[in-house]
Write a structure and sequence with these properties.
327 residues; alpha+beta; Jelly Rolls; 7-stranded antiparallel beta sheet
Length: 327
Amino acid sequence: MRKIFIFLIFILSPLQILFAEENWYQTAANLHKEWAKTYYKLSDFERYTNIHKLIIGKEIKLRPGKIPFPGWKTNLSMNVKVKDGAMAEVIGAEDFAFNGKTFYSFTADYSKCKKKGKQNDCTHHFGSVRTELTSKADWTFTEGTEKWINYVFMPTQNILFPKNPHRKFTVGQCHPDGHKITWMMTIQSAKLIFTHEFSSFKNNDQWKPSSMEKRRVLKKFKVNKNHGTDSWTKVRINFKNSKKPDGKLKVWIDDKLAYDYEGPTNWGKKKHEGKTRNVCYFKFGLYANANLKAEHKHEAEGMTVFTDYMAMARTEKKLEALLLKDK
């Protein structure tokens, strides 16, 4: 089928090529869904529970439901179903938690990719799926908004692939209207990568928009046999969304300052290329791309990230107060 698609490139218009490519990926997604129906012998809840038992090394319980994020009002992105344990509180592994007695997990299967309105995750970015929280309000950051965000995470299964540069896993992002992202935290090739767009540079005392995205490798993970790792990563972000020089975007990884930008964080334009660009909404969880480029089908299933110690506030002092309540 792929050879047929390559042949079509030479005889079709760009619009026809785009349509043919989307159809190819949709067919591949449908075939993956059919494969999953025969591959799984357990219910999703049992399967997700077994994944957690394998990783943690003992009996645990999952309490399915939308994961709380203190200080931030949320909805479920793409109306993902979480009653089967795709989002869950992990109970019975206090020694494994980063803080308190319990922690949380996000699990995603490419076989559950969805289409909602114009957004078709099944064909997007070579096959995507998400188990993700999104902002309940339209925008988390408008002009002048400043917030502090804290969370820890551990990629535990089918996330870390050092030799596969295509697969990408997003574990926190601020999304404006359209595909150009304000900033995002992703895992690629077993590295934690931070991408920052809508930055500016100073020239002759004047701030000018930069067409270059800023991209930093923040951490390299030690990979285990489950394509995961065995240790937590702590993330703290201080972001002020501003068209003025008082804007800032700072990221600490494991309590060390890893990215430090001060200056305009949007370009002062409500619209850019027809899209709203001076605002963004926060998203958190697991968003997996390029699942159709997985070496083996089962590696695009049961993709799991543990999370803990989450909070959002307008000041660092208020953030610390919320974190003290984490049980």
